[in-house]
Amino acid sequence: MAKDSSSTRVSLMESLSSELVSDDAGLYVHVPFCRSRCRYCDFVSYTDFSLVDEYFKALWREIELWTSLLPEVRVGSIYFGGGSPSDIPFELLEKTVDLIAKRFRLKSDIEFTVEVNPNCGFPVEKLKLLGVNRVSVGLQAADDSVLQRVRRRHTVSDFFKVFESAKSFAKVNVDFIVGLPGESDRTIDEDVCVVERLKPDHVSIYLLEIHEPDLNQPPCEEVEARYERFVESVQSIGYLRYEISNFALNGNLCRHNLKYWRNEDYIGLGIAAGGHLGRIRYVNTSKMVEYVSQIWKKEFAFEYFSENDELQELKESLFMGLRLREGISVERLRSLCPAFDLEVLFSDLLGELLQLEDGFLRLTEKGFDLSARVLADVIDRISSIAVGR
Ligand code: SF4
């Protein structure tokens, strides 16, 4: 729900255009189409491809809206996610990238990531023509029977082919999910073998968050134990766990996602995409008809839009920043909210679950393992300050 009326919103947007001169913003483009639905999916994605052309036309207009408002912003990373960008006709991706390059000021060392499925609808090498230098491949599990059970449309051997092609021109991330039906210790060992054998630059290991009785997921205790084993294995072969679910080899951290975790500036384009600029936080509508008709009227399609007060900004920065191994700088926390006394507020967590060291507040090893609980506790405490005001 939007917190601000549309007139407040307009004046905030105007002040944003004169005040915000971000030198290294991220740009996220949501491509909400997939040829079929995976059984566990809770992303905003449509299987009706008759909507694709209309959607892209609206997306191009949204690019124009943002670049008229913020002509000075320089973009340091682009991320095409979905959905499945690799299910879309290549020409539409090409036209979108051309327009972005024409309208936005792109930094010369830009990181440009595209998510692809292993059964990519076009030769993955074509992404090189767009300037893509990072490819994120959704393998999810290195076992065909697990993939079939969740209705992934690819096989493990499709993945190997795409991986080989992608690594010839780009850094490669591989996504895995733990907690899928049909998974066992053996299938997790297969996942680890793939990482050991291919040594991708980056690995993301997510825990399946949804719990649906029809899905026949393995019991929670088994899933947690397997997750831990998977994480330990990738760390033992040299990956740095720099975020709760993300692991980098040889310093290949994802620069785009770091902007989310550091609560920096990024613009989200497309349905259900969110952005954070200065202190403004917004999320676009996830309804296709509403998105297209709003943008066609030359208006943004926000479902949520708000200017964060200092406590909200602090809360977001802590919630995201503590997910990182580096934590969050105390100087930044104090600049966000000078009255905030973290030694007092977190006195009983410091030492065991939180650590203050070298000017950074971060989770301890134990805090990292119990991150969901600790993050919820931290946010509750900040909310209690807001209530007490
Ligand atoms: S590919 Fe991703 S977005 Fe598409 S249906 Fe599967 S999980 Fe959902």
In words, what does this structure look like?
The structure is a single chain. The chain is an alpha/beta fold and 389 residues long. It has two domains: 6-259, TIM Barrel (Alpha-Beta Barrel), CATH 3.20.20; 310-389, no CATH class. Helices cover 40% and strands 22% of the residues. The chain has helices at 6-19, 52-69, 90-103, 144-149, 156-167, 185-198, 220-236, 255-261, 288-296, 310-321, 330-336, 342-345, 365-369, 371-388, and strands at residues 25-31, 74-82, 105-116, 134-140, 171-178, 202-207, 240-243, 246-248, 266-269, 274-277, 280-284, 302-307, 328-329, 354-357, 360-363. The strands form three sheets. Strands 7-8-6-5-4-3-2-1-9 form a nine-stranded mixed beta sheet, with helices on both faces. The mean pLDDT is 93. Bound molecules: iron/sulfur cluster (SF4). Iron/sulfur cluster is lined by residues 34, 37-38, 41, 43, 45, 82-84, 117.
Helix tally equals: 14
User: Measured on Cα atoms, how large is the radius of gyration?
Assistant: 21 Å
Largest sheet: 9 strands, mixed
Tell me the strand percentage band: 15-25%
List of distinct ligands in this structure: iron/sulfur cluster
What does the overall shape look like?
globular
CATH architecture of the largest domain: Alpha-Beta Barrel
| Count of spatially separate domains | 2
Mean pLDDT: 93
Structural class: alpha/beta
CATH class categorisation of the largest domain: Alpha Beta
